[in-house]
Amino acid sequence: MEEKMLVEEHISSNKRDTVVICFFMMLLLLGFIMAVGLVMGLPPVIAMMFGIPIVLVYIGITYSFSVQSVLKAAKARPANPNVREEKLLIYKVEEMALAAGMPVPQVYVQDSENINAFATGKSPEEAVICCTTGALRLLNEEELEGVMAHEMSHIRNYDIRVMTVTIGVVGAISLVAEILFWMFFWGGGRGRRDANPALIIAAVVLIILAPIFARLTYLAISRKREYLADASGAYLTRNPEGLAAALEKIKQDIPDDPKGSKTVAPLYISNPFKRSHRDSIWSTHPPIDERIARLRNM
């Protein structure tokens, strides 16, 4: 029989895993910049002086996308306190904010028959929690509380900020790699004459593979933050079964009525366009069965 873990142990484990993966992404970024410098014939210091500002600018551009642009992409609207189900949602969000010791996020609703929810906002002060009408209709009060605790945990753990920065890094690496590709295609790039040919080849291979590794690293961080939000949400409610039961319903819910854009799909508690039933390195979300098992092992 599998030994049960405390909720706090799940939280600590997922935080450690995230730090390790983020450290790997940082090493990948630095290695990529060094490889670009080697191929372009630039000393390491000069490569860093040019490369790091480019990455920071790209992250800044990614970071500038507003909460309203996410809500527009999701086709969400403010919750109506005059509608019974939406009034209950507002109360649940307020209750979870109080439990987490955080400002109460704005509450939005997405008109979709699928069971889902998401949180957005790079800080607790500008945070928004959105829930589908399908979730309000099909989840009981305990399950809705579990889902809201999960989304509140994303805000509390600054997951949107973490994922925004990692997306910026992935985008910057991909952009620079593509620029280099076209430069070499058109005959640019000269390399350092005193460089070891084996190092040049290794640098070119790293430049080619770096966007793939960066994307995989981003996806790994995304999955770990979902596990962390599950555990943190269970800590807020002291009731892991609420979220586990909600995930059971989400698992059975075929995403036949997804609304909004696929660009915001990673924000949801479960991908509204495709359910993750198997473990995949290309998925933004962990398998639902594994998430349920972990919750029931707390």
Describe this structure in words.
The structure is a single chain. By secondary structure, this protein is mainly alpha-helical. The protein has 2 domains: 7-65 and 161-223, no CATH class; 67-159 and 224-296, 2-Layer Sandwich (Zincin-like), CATH 3.30.2010. It is 64% helix and 6% strand. It has helices spanning 7-40, 44-63, 67-74, 84-100, 133-138, 141-156, 159-185, 197-237, 240-252, 288-296; strands at residues 76-78, 106-110, 117-120, 128-132. A 4-stranded mixed sheet has the order 1-2-4-3, sandwiched between helices. A hairpin with a 7-residue loop joins β3 (117-120) and β4 (128-132). α2 packs across α7 (159-185). It is elongated, with a radius of gyration of 22 Å. The protein starts with 6 loop residues before the first helix and ends with a helix.
